[in-house]
Specification:
heterodimer, A: 137 residues, alpha+beta, four-stranded antiparallel β-sheet, 7 strands, B: 212 residues, Ribosomal Protein L25, Chain P, RNA Polymerase Alpha Subunit, Chain A, domain 2, four-stranded mixed β-sheet, 41% strand, elongated
């Protein structure tokens, strides 16, 4: 699973995701991609599950690029613990995704396989997505 | 190169965020024509038509003749902004093209003979490093695309710009011999070959045991 090598601080505020993506909204590497339609916090497990689903459907041919990185530590309190006594321990890493963000790109496979692979990958994600492809040149 | 396409536009008297949004609400697309030492001219185009033109392909290498209130401007698209979520056009920049001018244009790269490449036949993946190449071209002879021949390429090969035949009168803006594409070995291929070899060895072993 993806996670930062080291961080300056162990815990972060929850925050809110406002607006649409300013960058990372175009396909940069591959022919096909998966674009987020909603603001959502996508965790590292989802990203890894989606990557596996995509590469399996592509029969491990072609190439996959992951355009998001989970760099937000999310903490939670243990069960049956009363409120207070400070913030919980970091539990997992997540990525704040804004609408319009390209999350995955793939290349080296036919459009049919790309659509199916990204459909299966999208099913693992907690965010609504759309299949996109490079503008014909 | 293709012949210049005709476009009809109207001049905009108001510019800015509010005016541009008002135009978009009325099915029009704000755009601007600039360059050639003249003042910038804000215009409005039909949004549906421009959406079709952008997605039809070859938009950035096509010369347009835009008729604005009876006056014709010879232009080339320089940039277009798309909605980040829904990918419909928000704005287009056009550059005025004078006769005999040399332009810097991002020309798309097309790959041919991929099916006859031994590297791709053996499971290699065409890794496109540059989907477009920035070329200096004469304004009256803008190439639609650059053809890169993949015939005879092996896995692990790199195709550099020096090995690509460029259209006459054009030259790349980058001085060094940059890579256009590579034939990469997919991550799964090594594991797949190992698995196949293991299966063959197992079958041979089972056959040998049976014969004993």
């Amino acid at each position: 699973m993806l996670s930062p090598k080291k961080t300056k601080f162990r815990k972060q505020f929850k925050g809110r995701i406002h607006g649409v993506a300013k960058g990372g909204t175009d396909l940069n590497f591959g022919q096909y991609g998966l674009k987020a339609l909603d603001p959502e916090r996508v965790n590292a497990r989802e990203i890894e599950a989606a990557r596996r689903a995509i590469t399996r459907e592509m029969k491990r041919m072609g190439r996959v690029w992951i355009r998001i990185f989970p760099d937000v530590p999310v903490s939670s309190k243990p069960t049956e613990v009363r409120m207070g006594k400070g913030k919980g321990a970091p539990e997992f890493w997540a990525c704040r995704v804004k609408p319009g963000r390209i999350m995955f790109e793939i290349d080296g496979v036919s459009e049919e396989i790309a659509r199916e692979a990204l459909r299966l990958g999208a099913a693992k994600l907690s965010v609504r997505t759309r299949f996109v492809q490079r503008i014909a040149e | 190169m293709t012949a210049a396409k005709q476009l009809k536009a109207v001049a905009r008297d108001r510019v800015g965020k509010g005016a541009a949004r008002a135009l978009r609400r009325n099915g029009q697309l704000p755009a601007v024509i600039y360059g050639d030492g003249k003042a910038a001219a804000p215009i409005a185009l039909d949004a549906n038509m421009m959406n079709r033109l952008i997605y039809a392909g070859g938009f950035m290498t096509t010369i347009f003749e835009v008729e604005v209130d009876g006056k014709t401007h010879r232009v080339i698209p320089r940039d277009f902004a798309l909605d980040p979520v829904k990918d419909f056009p928000l704005h287009i920049d056009f550059l005025r093209v004078a006769a005999g001018q040399t332009l810097t244009v991002d020309v798309p790269v097309h790959f041919i003979n991929g099916e006859t490449s031994p590297g791709i036949k053996n499971g290699g993946v065409l890794n496109v490093v540059r989907h477009t190449v920035e070329l200096e071209v004469p304004a009256d002879r803008i190439p639609e695309s650059i053809q890169v021949d993949l015939a005879g390429t092996q896995m692990g090969d790199s195709i550099h710009i020096s090995s690509v035949t460029l259209p006459q009168g054009t030259k790349p803006t980058i001085d060094r011999d940059f890579t256009v594409a590579t034939i990469a070995t997919p991550a799964g291929l090594g594991a797949a070959v190992e698995a196949e070899e293991a299966a063959v060895a197992e079958a041979q072993k089972a056959e040998a045991e049976k014969s004993e």
